Amino acid sequence: MGGMEGRSFGTRHRPSKWLTIAGWNPAHPTRLAFVGVAALALLAALADGIYLWSTRGPNGWVVTGYIVLWCLGLVTAIYLNRSFNRAG
Known about the structure:
Shape: elongated
């Protein structure tokens, strides 16, 4: 009697994927807060290392430690990005 029980409107409203695990796309703000900041920090550290190395000749141990720690940061950022990709 005029109810909407039997009607079909064709498309159903699906919830937005933005608030779900599948919504962790590359432009998601939380992902950018972690992966984006990690990438910018690595880029800034690389630029600073090149600048310091070109202006002053640091000790070999300092350069080696810097390279090892920079590579560790890079590996950590890669694993962080991979964990976001697996969550999606």
